[in-house]
Amino acid sequence: MSILSRGAHVQINPRKNNCRSSQGSGIYIGNGIIMTASHILNPKENGCVYYSSVGDDVNVAINDKILNAKVLKISKNFSFGENDVALVKVSEIYSRYYKDLHSMPLCVKPVQPNDNFALLGFRRLVPVEHLGPLIQGQFQAGDSGSGIINMKERCIYGIVSASEKTGFDSDMSHTEPKSLSETTLSVTNFNEIKTFIDNK
Q: d(Cα 91, Cα 78) in Å, to the nearest integer?
């Protein structure tokens, strides 16, 4: 099974007047749960501010099939590159659409000198360069929430966040694809993700 089978596409429809849909990517971690960036579910643009809460409805697209999901857990105290993580759960009635997705574990050890990294998003697997807390590579709008994968260890190193260096307006959750030149992004790393998941 291709590593791309672990990608997913997460879309939030705020259902609030004058709000555009915010969208980004996510990564499957098993049991119908997709991990993504918190800021995708908390869009702030065009004068619209929307904060998602646990239980809110989310649309998840897997292999072009739009599925109903709900926010399972979300960080309210995130900043770009820190605690920018959320979990959404697809309803079990749609299990046939995600049962062939292969989950990927979180990394458990620090980066080693010969480790290679890639961005794993919706139908995208793009090599990136690891620069400590930052990632550099060819990115486009909608890559927020993608997994940063340690290709040697086959584990999730982090989740793509964003920074003011990206050239995006305020975040990466726009609907229009836009190819960008070499860009540096911040990443919520596996230690922060584990802390988020473990906290009740």
A: 26
